[in-house]
Write a structure and sequence with these properties.
binds copper (II) ion; about 20% helix; three-stranded mixed β-sheet; 2 domains; single chain
């Protein structure tokens, strides 16, 4: 009788140890297929030595791609972003398409979900919405050398569309 009770209590760790890997697998499948979370790299490759003649990086800046939809074509290099000042109207949905000219950089925009590595040879893509007018800082968050701490820019979200797209 005593042996049977002991066996029953073992289920308290057997069941969680089975549920844990099943839960982790379910989370992985949900984030990669349901929430579309994935590593940069699947978006495309580019030759970092030929950015000046490779669209869209030959013409960095902000392009309107639809009603309230914009694309920011961005090049990171030591130690700046091009463009480093971006103007957008409030209510914009913005896709950042970024690559690096030289070493590993990052693109991080606090208060948004933009947090990507910007790698030479690879195209990073991240989308965010800017509903509230104001100034949003963006920074390089991958150490890239002596001037890393100066590598930053700003997104100025205007209350009304004044036609100024910034860039360059
Ligand atoms: Cu950096």
């Amino acid at each position: 009788m005593k042996r049977k009770t002991t066996y029953y209590y073992e289920l308290f760790w057997i069941i969680p140890s089975l549920l844990l890997p099943i839960g982790m697998l379910a989370t992985l499948l949900f984030t990669s297929y349901g929430a579309d979370v994935h590593l940069p790299g699947a978006e495309g490759r580019v030759d970092p030595a030929k950015l000046d003649s490779t669209p869209p990086f030959d013409n960095p800046g902000v392009v309107q791609v639809g009603p309230s939809r914009y694309e920011v074509r961005m090049v990171g290099e030591i130690w700046s972003f091009n463009p480093s000042e971006i103007h957008l109207p409030a209510g914009s949905e913005v896709t950042f398409v970024a690559t690096s000219r030289d070493v590993v950089h990052g693109l991080f925009i606090p208060r948004t979900n933009v947090n990507v590595m910007v790698l030479p040879g690879q195209i990073a893509r991240a989308t965010a919405r800017f509903d509230k007018p104001g100034t949003y800082l963006f920074i390089c968050h991958e150490y890239c050398g002596a001037g890393h701490h100066t590598m930053a820019g700003q997104i100025i979200v205007d209350a009304a569309d004044n036609g100024d797209r910034g860039g360059k």
